[in-house]
Specification:
2 copies of one chain form a homodimer. Chain A has 425 residues and is α/β, with parallel strands linked by helices. Chain A contains 15 helices and 18 strands.
């Protein structure tokens, strides 16, 4: 079964916006073995939409479009579909009522009417008609017309289009696919994909279940689709087997997850950063409401600032080195003391591209976590450019705290870790 | 003159990488009135490349491809071009010599030979043959085959493809376009595009000059193309007229520019962040070598941390408020004192989505700059979501310092500023 994606919009042609829908669709469709064989982007020109649509329908088994379903003059997709397939347009009464009920369109009947049009035979994708978008079967081809708004496109693609394509792909056999099936997604960190693969392959009777995963660097997203009971069953197994790596369910990222955990426990966090240079703090404060659990952070970029601000001992810096377990430990202890926070995370290392040595190459990062009882320090080696190293080191620091909060100190194993030290406060 | 872009690579279809080349190409081609009418992405499948290429050549006047020119088995573009256009492949001796001279391929003659192949009649795009990529005229259509590596794709597009397309578009009239023409690009901040537009329209005798600009949020990039002398002339005019907004020439971003200025002056900077939460520090430290001028930074996210760490007075916080000129001023002074830095930047405000009031709505940000003589504070109102507000506020803080370093205190005018205060230290 071969498919194509069609993105419609001047703003995508002129690069005014980055096409994140294409990236999302590529990932999730590929995860289900439905990867497109062609992705086309065209401007809001009716003839272009008509011709491209006709060609793609001719060449492929399914086509998913994004964009041009809105109420303004440059939204031409629905009209173009009707012309391309020679179908009359009909007003969908439920859709019109839903659009008029929303405050945004209540005074603009003409706009609402336009958005409520669908080609004859089309079916609205959203049950409550709150989001535009429709599906159509045409000469045994499956066509899906989605809005370009990323949250709407991605929600409909995941929850409506993929289930329908799965159902269709398997000829409607309910064992394989169909109504009553559900979607489940997880976000993992530091997950070994080989382990995950082996585990999934060994699961007995996973017929009808679809499992895919794709990178969301440095996190990994796993998506499962199937009958509710089976999904529930495998979800439990995956949660047990990979519980250390499970950051969040659905769309919950690591910074969100840390926020939830700390808020629930009424605990607080402080940061002391060298090589991550503020990136760790900015990850934490990218979450709305983070002031509930994040009180303060320190970016101590030079050796002098580490001793002056955080109280790292001169002899630690000169004898152990700026990049060492002990410096990371003293940074974390300093941040904890200065902030009265429950926990403190510290990073020190070489983000590069220069500054590496044979002993401490670029990518070496020491991360420390101070808790009320103990302080833990890890040595990591991360690959990548400066930005990647800063990013992965910051996520890893957050993950160390997550594992500690959920499972305690016995579960600190990381793929890129090279060593570990701990001591009581 | 109508054109199309063709991106070739499995990794783009499966969403493993985000297609930043498409965004760049869309922006820069549009800036020169050469916006593509279709952008197609296909996997590394020979038949697909052949058929798509034939169709695009049929429908468009020019086609630019990206990807599949490398030495590995999945790099199929050159072979597919030869088949699609029924042209024999020939080895380009200069290209082969250049490839073999680079250390990467010296032991892999077969790989080098593959990369040195070009269809008969094609011309290498890079003079020194250090980068693969070729141009071909076929049935009066202009075809360009570029590598997918973003730095190489973008460099060849800008410096080779666009000049050749301009030359061709104007029928080779040297007044309009052609050899000896040069490219110049600038990055601006807080630029009013209406002013820029008016200015450009009023320039006399700009025949043959092409001027385009596109957002690089929150910066704006301006590109100029034309005969060296004319470009030089208009470049001087733009530099005079918009000097306050000129962040850097070519690809120099604001964080890079600040770094260069501070390093040249052997001066240093510290930060004290509330609403930007570490984003400002991470912008500064995203630049390699920033430890030369950035010593330390403070993220004081709560009121208490502002007084405990930075010495903001209790009465300032209670009487003026956490979001006020005075709090920003005392934060900057605190960071400067604690860091012994030449300058300190501070931010405090409401990034949202909650926490706004009628007096201080979401988007209100106070930014202070402490210098050796004085301290300046600004009130801004930025629109956008939490992430945008944090980003724009951080860039604005850096830009305030840039203007101060280059032009002194007389040039602090910003579109989104709502007020200003200053006082001696």
């Amino acid at each position: 079964m071969k498919g194509a994606l069609l993105f419609i919009g001047d703003e995508l042609i002129t690069g005014r916006i980055l096409n994140t829908n294409a990236e999302f669709a590529g990932k999730i469709l590929s995860a289900f073995g439905l990867e497109p064989e062609e992705i086309v982007t065209i401007p809001d020109i009716e003839d272009k939409i008509i011709n491209t649509l006709r060609r793609l329908i001719e060449e492929y088994d399914f086509v998913i479009t994004s964009g041009g379903l809105g109420p303004t003059e440059d939204d031409l997709t629905t009209q173009a579909v009707a012309k391309a397939l020679d179908l009359p347009l009909k007003e969908d009464k439920a859709l019109l009522a839903a659009i008029l009920a929303s405050s945004e369109y209540k005074d603009t009947f003409a706009m609402a009417s336009k958005m409520a049009l669908m080609p004859e035979g089309a079916q609205a994708l959203s049950e409550d008609s709150k989001v535009v978008g429709f599906a159509l079967t045409y000469r045994d081809k499956r066509l899906f017309f989605l809005p370009g708004v990323p949250s709407q496109f991605q929600d409909l693609l995941k929850n409506k289009v993929i289930p329908q394509l799965c159902l269709w792909k398997t000829g409607g056999r309910t064992l394989e696919c169909g109504e009553g099936k559900v979607f489940k997604s997880f976000i993992f960190f530091d997950l070994n994909e080989t382990d995950l693969n082996r585990f999934i392959q060994e699961i007995p009777s996973k017929e009808g279940l679809k499992i895919g995963y794709y990178p969301l660097l440095p996190e990994v997203r796993l998506v499962i689709f199937g009958r509710e009971e089976e999904v529930k069953n495998i979800t439990e197994q995956i949660k047990v087997r990979f519980k250390l790596n499970l950051v969040g369910e659905e769309e919950e990222s690591l910074p969100q997850g840390i926020g939830k955990l700390l808020r629930e426990r009424r605990e607080t966090l402080a940061t002391a950063e060298s090589c991550t240079g503020g990136y760790l703090a900015s990850l934490i404060t990218s979450i709305a409401g983070s002031s509930d659990y994040f009180d303060r952070g320190f970016v101590t970029y030079t050796a002098k600032s580490k001793s002056e601000i955080l109280g790292v001992k001169e002899e630690t810096l000169t004898q152990q080195g700026v990049y060492s377990y002990e410096t990371a430990i003293e940074m974390a202890l300093g941040a904890k003391r200065l902030s009265h926070s429950t926990y403190a995370l510290a990073t020190t290392g070489v983000a590069g591209p220069t500054g590496g040595t044979p002993q401490i190459p670029v990518g070496t990062v020491f991360i420390a976590l101070a808790t009320p009882q103990k302080v833990y320090a890890f040595k990591f080696y991360f690959e990548g450019n400066r930005n990647t190293i800063q990013r992965v080191a910051s996520y890893t620091a957050l993950d160390i705290l997550r594992r500690y909060l959920l499972y305690g100190e016995g579960f600190f194993s990381y793929r890129f870790a090279q060593g570990f030290k701990e001591r009581p406060l």
